[in-house]
Amino acid sequence: MPDTATRPTSPGADSLSVFFPCYNEQDNIRRVYESAAKVLGHIGVDYEVILVDDGSTDQTPHIIDAIADADPRVTAVHHPTNLGYGAAIQSGIRAATKTLVFFTDGDGQFDLNELPPLLPLMKEQDIVSCFRLNRQDGLLRKFNAWCWTSLVCLLFRMKFKDINCAFKLYRRRIFDDMELRSNGALINAEILARATRRRYAITQVGVHHFPRTRGQQTGAHPRVIFRAFRELFKLHQQING
Predict the structure, then answer these.
(1) Nearby residues of 176 by Cβ (< 8 Å), 6 or more positions away
(2) Residue 6 maps to a domain
(3) How crowded is residue 195: how many other Cβ atoms within 10 Å of its Cβ?
(4) Counting Cβ atoms within 10 Å, is residue 188 exposed (0-12), middle (13-18) or buried (19+)?
(5) What are the backbone angles phi and psi of residue 180, rounded to the nearest 5°?
(6) Which domain holds residue 205?
(7) How many domains does the chain fold into?
(8) What does pLDDT average to over the chain?
(9) Cα radius of gyration (the chain)
């Protein structure tokens, strides 16, 4: 682990929690963790890494435990069964103890080197919500994502380019008065909708997106999509009455 004691602290970052929601990412999670540890070691802030296993059925839980056993900065969080993407995000947020909270998925489709430039923005922002500059998905998946973002923004009167981009940075305190209820894919929309309603300062930044080279995507499963729409209309009733 790099020695960070003599490195300058990045502007805007007092301390940083980084978490990764994972479901059956045995071929990705170790290299994602190693990439994060390298980047975080050079930032020069007090940090922790949280690996959230959402009831994986492969070797992901054992790999996460091995990483946590070897690195005191790492905390392993396990769901006994697959509870959903939103539940994994909520577990990561609850486990975070630092002043800033960052998350990205455990599939390795983002470059953690794009995290440090976001930190100075937190001097004036409460949330940095990133968007994919070159989304590496098929046309149908990209079209569906555009439709979803457009619908969410219309319902909650927001303007975001990429609601579900899994590269977001938050001030930890915004969650102190935010009761999150989404256990599925709606979670990003819920956080942004509630934060917008509370007038938190939010900015958007483009980041690069890379093809998934290992493992399988689960976000396009019909069950996941149906759950997201069901939670969406419940959230709309809760927020807009």
Answers:
(1) none
(2) no
(3) 21
(4) buried
(5) -85, 135
(6) 15-240
(7) 1
(8) 89
(9) 17
C-alpha closest to that of 38 among 13, 60, 18? 18
Identify the pLDDT of residue 13.
58
Strands in 15-22's sheet, in edge-to-edge order, are 74-79, 46-54, 15-22, 100-104, 167-171, 127-132, 202-207
Structure tokens belonging to residue 127: 């949330």
CATH number for position 87: 3.90.550.10
The predicted pLDDT at position 220 comes to 53
Q: Are 69 and 62 in contact (CB under 8 A)?
A: no
pLDDT of residue 187: 95
10 found inside a domain: no
Would you say residue 4 lies in a domain?
A: no
Q: What is the DSSP letter of 82?
A: -
For residue 215, pLDDT over 50 is answered with: no
Which pLDDT tens digit goes with each residue over 140-174? 878 888 888 999 999 999 999 999 999 999 999 99
Residue count of the chain, please give it. Answer: 241
pLDDT at 219 over 70: no
**110 with 99: CB under 8 angstroms?**
no
For the record, the structure tokens of 62 come out as 């054992």
